[in-house]
Amino acid sequence: MEPRAPRPGQPRGPPPGRAAEEGLGPERTEQPLESRSPSLDMEGAASLISGEELPDSLPSMEDERDTLTDLEFEVGSLPEGPESTAASGHCSSVKEKQAEACAAGVRRAAAAEDRIQESQLRRHLDLLDRMQEEKDFFIQKTREELRTCRQRMDLLSKQQETVAAEMAREREASNTAAVGRLQASSRRLHTELENERDLQSRITAMLKENENAMWHIEMEKGRFQDLHQPSLEEAEARGRRLQGLAAQRLLKEKEAAEKAERNQRLRVGKSLHVQRELGLEHQRRMEDAQRNHKVAIEFLKVSLGRAREQEKKQETESRQVLKQRMDAVLALKSSITANRETLRKIQAWGRARAALAEQKASAEKEAILAQGGDAFKHLFHHRRRQHLEAQRRTFQEEQQLRKQEIVGRILKEEAEEESRKKKQLRPARAAVGRTLRDKTWNYIANICTGKMATMATSLPLEAEAAHPETSLLLKVISSESVQGDPGTTSGEEETLAEPEIPGLWQEDCAHYQELKEDVGRKPVGGTKMDKDILARTVAQLRSRVIHKQVVSGREFKGRPFNSKPQLVHFKDFEVGEVYKKKITLVNATYTINYCSLVGVDESLRDFVHIGFDPPGPMSAGMSCEVLVTFKPMINKDLEGSISFLAQTGSFSVPLKCSTKKCSLSLDKELINFGSYVVGETTSRTITLTNVGGLGTKFKVLPASEACEMDEEPSPLLNISSLLTSEDKSACEKGLASVSEQQLEGKTSLLDTQSRKELERMEGELPAGGRHPTSGSSLPGLQAAQACREQEGTSATGGLATFPSEEQAEITLGETTEGEIGPFSSVRVPVVFTPVIPGEVQTEFKVMFKNPKCPTLYFRAKGVAIDVPVWVPKPNLDLKICMYDRLYQDSVPIHTRSKVALRLKFEVCKELRGHVELLPETGYIQAHSTYSVQLKFLPRHSLPEDAGKYFDKESRVLEAPMTIWVADQCPSLLAQWRRGGAGDTHPPSMPQMKPVGFTIQAIVTTSDLELNPQELDFGYCTIYQALRTEIVLYNPSLLPQEFGFVGLPKFVDIQPNDGFGTILPLEALQLDVIFQPTKAKEYSFELVCKSEVNRCFKMSCRAVGVHPPLELSHYQIKFAATPLYDTSVARLYVLHSHPAVSSLPHSGPRTDSEEVSPVGATTFEFLLPSDSPITISPLVGTVLPGKRCLVQVAFRPVLTHARIHEEALQILNKEIQDKLFRKDTLSQRKELWRQSLSVLRLRTRDRLLRAVAASHPPQQQKQELRVSSHDYQIAQAALARNFQGKFEKFVVPCVMASGDVKDRKGSEPLTFSPHNTLYLELWCPAVAPSIVVTSNKGKTTFHFGDIAVGHRSIKKVSLQNISPDDLAVEFSVLNPNGPFSLLNPFSKLCSGETQVLMLSFSPRESILAQETLDVISEKGNLTLTLTGMGVASMVTCSIEGNVLNMGYVLARESVSSSFKLQNDSSLPIKFSMRLESLSSTRALARQQLPQFLATPTRRTDFVGTQNHNGQSVFSVLPVEGVMDPGKEQDCTVTFSPDHESLYFSDRLQVVLFEKKISHQILLQGAAREHAMFVEGGDPLDVPVESLAAISAVGPEHREGSPSPEAEELKPILVTLDYVQFDADTPAPPATRELQVGCIRTTQLSPKKMAEFSMDSVTWLQHKGFSIEPSRGFVERGQTKTISISWVPPVDFDPDHPLMVSALLQLRGDVKETYKIILVANVVTGS
Fold first, then answer.
1. What are the CA-CA distances from residue 388 to residues 383, 463, 868 (Å)?
2. Are β-strands 856-865 and 838-848 bridged in parallel, bridged antiparallel, or unpaired?
3. Which of helix, strand or coil describes residue 652?
4. How far is residue 1596's CA from residue 124's CA, in Å, rounded to a whole number?
5. Span 947-984, pLDDT tens digits
6. Diameter of the chain by CA atoms?
7. What phi and psi values does residue 1646 have, to the nearest 5 degrees?
8. Three-class SS state of 108
9. What are phi and psi of 1302, to 5 degrees?
């Protein structure tokens, strides 16, 4: 029998010679491998699959049953096929039977072969489709690459043209360097263009090859299209049959599902009712527990509050006790210190008075001895008077003590009598006659006001000075004398006699009443209440007359009428004359006004008469006249005012009347005659002027002479004219203290003011060394006279005393005395006649007959010289001079000589190189002037050359110049001395000594110093400028003008563009601004020129950098932003480089060549610390040619330190006020007891010091918390009083090469300090209009962690602190977001506070953040709302979310447990849901079954279910609550009611009845018997049908079934032997089967199950190895059967091996499984 020809789709490869017949061209088989790309090799190999041998595969799914039916036949007949065919030719007896059998076998084989060929054809077509799709995609990709290559070629061609044009231009410009660079660029572009052309040719060839392969694939698909059409039609018919069967099955399943759903609804309803009852009971218990808990909390709070209050009260009381003790100790200490200080001062005062008395006594003794008197007798009498005075004082003290005792007794008796009267309730009665009490009071009055007063006034002050201790004792007043009521000292006398008829003695009480009236008499002018009543009455009367004047909304304020003149002054009046003056009053108000005369002052009514006729209403600007008549009656100065009353108020015009007076003065106090030659005479005049209206006589005489007029003025005036200002003040203080002591004899010596004056006077005693007694308080007028005498002596001794010859040189002229009239002047000549060379000075005085005119003094001085030649300017000041500069000046020289003189000018040898006098020799004519030229050219060697004439520290040059005079006759002087000349005055003396003059100059330098000398700007980008400060210092003493000239374009100097004037020794700070124009290295000089054309240079260098990034804005000016508001500005970070390179370029670009390609560049903004600036993003990466958006936010806030300082100040102020008030109240009783004012003041000072010492400032000790009330008060106060602030920030932006995402771990990027940009921010802050008063003033509100589905509410208090009402709007929150505003309002009044309620209700687990803007016309307030929605943070102990319950016997159950753990911070409510019990389950079951749907639509996780309507899976607990960090044990029970391998369901863990946390797939299998086999390839669908389908074929069902045939169950095991290389043996193909025995609670005779597999030897012959082939399995255990296969030697790879074996299981029953083994060889790629 010949083999059949293979069909086109038969999986057999053709022989090598038949490749052309199969449709494969020679180009496909003979194409060289090296000419194709790897992708083409793959595609070409795939395209050859049509001619190669396809691998055998399994039959298709639709022919599976037929295949299973014929498997047994095939296994038995295939090995024996060739032998039977061969035997048919030799055995003729059985030909017919064998022929029929062969025909049937051939038919069956042909049908099986057709089915296999169809399956292979179908797979071959699918492979062609995939190959076509891949080839199409590759062709499109290749075409895109070809298009890109052509674009690059066009770009390179354009660049070549551009470079050629630039090269031509540079060649014309003869720029060799540029031409070379352009040639290199041209060569590089040419090379790149050639490479692109080669790439284009390769891509074109590749595209052509792929298109050819695509055509061959299309041809191949066309060949098999006709063969595939019948199979498609058959598949469609088979699909229709299956749909009909599925529809029937769906109908039955629908009925079963409805039944199961009804049962489930009943169970669910019952369970819901039970759960509802349990929930209500649980809720009631929870409410009771919460209510009891609240009550317990309230009781606990009350108890704790009461305990805290008691503790605070005890602590406060203890602190108060300690504080009182400390205050008492400090007060006692300060009192002791003050008493010691007072005692020390009193002792010092006594010693000073004793020393003063001794000095006075010695002075008096000397004065008596000088007058020739008896000093001993005088001292004896003086001491005797002192002794008598001491006795008198002792007697007076005793009388005073007696008086006090008597007064005390009287007061005591009065108090007792008063108390007795109150007890008896009877009126007091007075005696008719004088009682003992009246006599006692008369005696006390005589002692106090009579003789004792006379003796006290006649007491001399000398005794008081001699005995200071006694006077002190007399002046101390006992505190007991002032404790009684002074009003009771003149009370009535008591008597024990009572009248028979009450009321008879009431008429004789007038004396008592008179005494009481005298004692309680009101003060002059009335009491304070009377004065207040009078003032209110006058104000009410004036209010009826005076009205406010308001015109055009302006109220008039000021003087209603202006007077001309403003002061009425009657000067130099005479008694008896009449003087008149007119006053013009002008209305100065806005409108009509009235004026009436009130009168003049009381002191002027007798002398002044006012003539005034009221003019009536006067318009604004109108005037009226007032006539003032003055008739003096006394010769006395008068002052007062004339009062008027206008409608808008009263006003007055001042009036002054002055008598005639002498007002004398000299026009000068010093007459300087200058220099004159001996023998000459000159005169000057001094003018005496009288500007008063009274004349007097005067006399001018030297100050040393006496005159009769000296005795007429009072000695006080004469002495005061000689005293200095310090001596006058000291003497006046002494007199004032003496007068006060005389007037206030009963005042205590402890008076604070007197003691301070005494201390000040004692401090002045050692200071005035010239007059040791001038500042002492000498007692009486004798001490003052002694002080004046000593002052006069010292002042007179201080005057210069001249000899008689000298006094004759300066004399008075003819007019020395006379009379000066009123308003006149007199000139008095003074003559200067020098006699002896030298300086002369004389003092004169002008005395007047009028005693009220003080003596005037003036001085006259002159210089007598003995040479005729002199220099008018002996000191030639050249001011300030600079080195190396020429200065010239002329020196005039005068002569008095009558003959010509020869002059020689000489410069000191030290300065001959610097100073020159021209000419060196000259002649000066008689009585003429000669000028010599001085040239001064200071060199730098002047400090060394000048020597002692130059001071190097002060730079002052002071050098003498000499003028020698020659050609004078020395015989003239001798002739004059002999008297032969007969002249009164000597002739011109010969010039024996030279004439000198001095040159003075301050020599300074002309340098300017620049610091630093070299300036290095470093690296600077071309987008920005660098500013560096330099210091220009002027060491010269002269101001110099300067200017920086020749500056390059990229440099600027400010201020004033580098020009200005620098003051001496001044250091100016100048800003040098460097802004490079291109990237290169800069080296230049800054030249500073001074006004003297000197140049000073500073070398500078810098490097211009072209950074890869730039900013769109380098300066941002924010608008005025309120506190806690935010202003946002946007800018871009730009990457201007066009090319991209993978190599990093971290270094700066410092040349102007072509831009080198760079990659991604990272930037970072470096914000200053504690700045109100926020930049987002701070760090970012920008690709070349791209840009990145950056937002800059400015949010001004108050610093914590400023708020803390303000809070401490407020707190300390309150504490100090409270402590001061408390201490003042505690010390008030002690202060009231003190009688003397000195003790009162001292105690008050001590109290203040004690308070300050006991309560120091506590701001250092206290640390306020941010949450404290004082902190919030301080913050609100600062926000309300915020005055605005302006700040400027400069933020650097650094750059680094690379992407921030590419760094490894935490490895930082390397930022280049050279590529740094700077962003300048102007930030003005103003006071906010709306502030947040809650949440400590913060505008960020964090709701915290809130469970999904729950809600949290926060309250925000907003206050309007602006003076205006504001209309408020709110921004719209995200309507789908978790935040919402509950109570918006539209208006916020000034000072008003409104409360906003904000809600946060998250719907998912997310960190939510939104901003709510409170918008007003004065600014916005941004509230930031943040919150965290916390969903399920639940973890499950099941890995993979699959829980396999394993095998279980039908109608039995098994349980498995797993754990859920709450990892969140919130308690979580959970519930368990099975998808099989879902309400949508019935709807899902109406769709197509899972095995009929496409893989993408298979979403049903619910498998086979129980037939009884109950769920096969159950879980406990169904719901509950998991606390944070706790675990929950869950139990799943698997209870099948029939046998199935596809029990499954999906368990959902739902949190808060909303979110599904976990989905767990539940799987299980059920068997009727204990043994089971698991493994192999699936042969059925995972959906159980309601119709029972047997596993055996129809052929077996037709005959009588045997028990073994009914239990036969197929298991398919496919083994693929992978062979990588023919020479290397591959590992065997291995599969495993699991044989197990189910653990059960039923009784069974067998404890173990047995399994065995037959035909093991025959399987080994086929290459199969089975281990183990038989064994035992215990209950609840499984054993693995390992099946491995190695191809035998005679195995044909083209035909897969298919064999079968029987596996028998013996447990409670016997089961047989048919193991179908299919082996195949697969070639590894």
1. 9, 9, 78
2. antiparallel
3. strand
4. 35
5. 889 988 888 999 998 888 875 444 444 444 444 434 44
6. 212
7. -105, 130
8. helix
9. -85, -5
